[in-house]
Amino acid sequence: MMAQPYGYDELNRESRIGGMGTEGTHAVALIDLSDFDARKPEIADQLWQAATTLGLFQLTGHGIPMAQIEEAFALSEAFFAQPMEAKAGMPLRPGTNAGWEFKAQVRPSTGTPDQKESYQITRPRMDGLWPDEAAIPGFKEKMLAFEAANWAVAMKVLSCFALKLGFDADLFTRAHDPASPEYQSTLRLIHYLPMTDAKPEDFTGWRAGAHTDFDCLTLLHQKTGQGGLQVCPGHAAEEGAWTSVEPVAGIITCNIGDMLMRWSDDRLLSNPHRVRMPRPDEYLGPRYSIPFFAQANKDFVLQGPDRKYPAITAGDYILERIRANYDALKARG
Ligand SMILES: O=C(O)CCC(=O)C(=O)O
Ligand SMILES: [Fe+2]
Q1: How close is the Cα of 1 to the center of ligand 2, in Å?
Q2: Is residue 36 part of a domain?
Q3: Per the domain annotation, does 4 fall within a domain?
Q4: Which residues form the pocket of ligand 1, taking CB atoms under 6 Å from any ligand atom?
Q5: Up-side HSE of residue 150: CA atoms within 13 Å toward CB?
Q6: Domain CATH number, residue 218
Q7: Is residue 314 exposed (0-12), middle (13-18) or buried (19+ Cβ within 10 Å)?
Q8: 297-314 tens-digit pLDDT
Q9: Please, which residues bridge with residue 289 across strands?
Q10: The pTM of the whole model exceeds 0.80
Q11: Which of 76, 92, 275 to mutate to test ligand 1, by most ligand atoms within 8 A of the CB atom?
């Protein structure tokens, strides 16, 4: 038997999924959250069905106004349009999910950096990392409000999973308390570089290489016409059957992350996803997306209903994942 080089199943799988694979055709569930309190049992059924199969679904009726989403994208474009020197003054502090990076995220699945720049907002870690108020008026206040709006939607979805897992309805809300200094949920602005002047060989790379997310639940905002997201359900990962997810402005695409998969004793599925390059005959302009990563507070203890895995704090879980990722990259050489 071949030695298993990495300590985590997620990574052993990830190291095999860096290739092109084939196209899949899974239906992506579109789930309406409107009238949430009255319809919660029915909504919980739909979320559970989607999260235990494809592990990815889309939301309407989530309550975040279209104007607020458009404003967030406009502020994101303004952020990345700043001069390089200005952005370099707000550098990502490694391991903190706060600040700006340029082509610095290398995925174990591909061994190459994602073709993007990003700016991450994690509430307790932002000292010195906000753009000048004069440079982008209202940026900090509006981004924090957008972060809070996403948090609220994430907590609604997570409360449905709590119900299904037999946890008390507020467990995940307590676990993601934004008032705590241990808070580690993140709003990430992403700018994938335009491919208009790219060389033919540049099209063989990935905008974002295949990966699973570390968090509990990811809420992703996309723009109509700026496609490329693909998901591969776990049971198909060996064959690499990738289903394309159509981006529609105003609809939130959600996926389960590794932390919730562990916390649910592997019932909710954190599946590999990636952002492919456009083909030369497709839209070649920049691509903007905004994910919100709901990630339990560092000091919160994760333990599944059937205790399949030992209890671990969310902080230690993330540290282990970062270390395993690092080792996986080293093993690639
Ligand atoms: O930009 C996208 O559409 C997906 C981004 C993503 O998967 C991530 O940042 O984890
Ligand atoms: Fe992701």
Answers
A1: 31
A2: yes
A3: no
A4: 190, 208, 213, 220, 222, 229, 273, 275, 289, 291
A5: 30
A6: 2.60.120.330
A7: buried
A8: 999 999 999 999 999 999
A9: 190
A10: yes
A11: 275
